[in-house]
Amino acid sequence: MSQILFRHDRLDRAVTFAEYRAQGGFRALETALADLSPDAVQQAVIDSGLRGRGGAGFPTGKKWSFVPRNLPGPRYLICNCDEMEPGTYKDRVLLEHNPHLLVEGMALACYALGVEHAFIFIRRGYELAALNLKSSIAEAHKAGFLGANICGSTFNLDLDVHQSAGRYICGEETALMNALEGIRANPRSKPPFPAVKGLWGQPTVVNNVETLANIPAIVAHGPDWFKALAATPEGAGTKLFCVSGHVQRPLCLELPIGTPLGEIIDSHCGGMRPGSTFKACIPGGASTPYFTRDHWTVPMDFDPVAKAGSRLGTGGIVVFDQTTCMVAATLNLVRFFARESCGWCTPCREGLPFVRHILERIEAGRGDMADIEVLREHVAKLNYAFCALAPGAMGPVEGLLRLFEDEVREHITRGKCPVRLTAKG
Amino acid sequence: MIPTHLRQQLEQRVAQAITPREAAVDVMKELQRHYGWLTDEAVAEAAALLGLSPLQVEELATFYEMIYRRPVGRTVIHVCDSISCWAMGGETLLRHLEHLLGIEAGGTTADDAFTLLPCSCLGNCGTGPSLMIGDRLFGPVSPEQAAAIVADHREAG
Ligand code: SF4
Fold it and tell me: ipTM score here?
């Protein structure tokens, strides 16, 4: 069984609570509450090597271990389902098909962390996912897997769904806490880290949907089993890859983490569309530097992708064919980040529109060779912004200058876009 | 003025919250549903319900993409302009909708039925180009389908 998250039949509806139960659902929670201490659950997650699936790839068990054991007052878990990174739609697919998995994963995480009140922060637009979650929570309550004295134990848990109103920066974990509290969602300065002082000043863990959905299988089958699912020796588990763009069959699929890029595109997405040849892709969501044909065999796991000059990020792969102008693609991405900047710090608020402006000029054929250096300078300097949004926005710009400098120069020397302006419609 | 039952419902929501302002987005969204957009009156009412100043509500309202501080039509059509939809012809789709509705992006039709807004990623990347009409996501949307979706909505609306 190499599918944990999509192991249930891919129906065109969500798996029902009864179906989930019949296939072993909530058994991991029952077992944990009967036989395992919270520390044992946490240790299993540490040993499993699970790394956060929201983009940063931080080891999940380690993140949990930062929560101090003896601070007074409540502690919180927040499931981050803000998912507004362009090219990324895996959490939606997961929640539209199996919301119960997240509920069970959160219950296990809360048990391990000593949390009695947890939140799911879900973006605007995911109305079906939110609806599924709410009914799944109600069903779990009725069956005694949420609420007071879960499965006859002393463990209590309430789960609340918080629906947002649409703003990319809410996905940043400290901004997310502000958003939940009803404060304008600018990121907070760290330290103090959320694990010590988070939501309402209390210890808080923020994990992505996919991360939490992996917990039941880790508890049920053990860390070694989970590790062995990976296609790379150092990797652990499976990964949801959501592919979009010019492939034959764009889709969201679960594969061993470390499956090579080319295999995902060719074997699982049916290769390129008729008439299309592969030019480049974004490997892990809008903030990750491009991959080209040279990266075809790179295993899609955190470390190998980083070694190859990009980031695994969310696993959102956006594929471009030969008709795509890479300056225009980069401009589209920078426009997104400039618009979504929260405006808190000057480098990002002022820097991103400036970079956008330069790219607009180059794309329109009015660029100057000196622009290339100015862009490079910004790639380096925006690292000093307050949060990861601005450096993330420079990911594609860095990739453009490293991999497609010729194409940028051609725009400038020819005074027009050498490729078709937009991709095939 | 909002009807009493809505006020009571919102008061209850605020009372359930850990701190009143935790309910801010829910309150703004419900008031927006009632008025069609977040009017000045709604901002004042939200402030009273949440125990905030109108300026504090304004600060939140202007932050979120889907809270409208300007009048919009009865239905908002959001067209994704982010990378995956762009690659699949999102710009063409937006231009087609402009033509179809006889307005520019950002505008509202003369009969107040629709407002057309380009927006950030809708999380529908695998089936781009996509649009959201009211609360419903569609994709991939060809120009012909866009016309049908708008017509269907007009009839149902
Ligand atoms: S880098 Fe951008 S998004 Fe982050 S705090 Fe600064 S202005 Fe806000």
Answer: 0.95
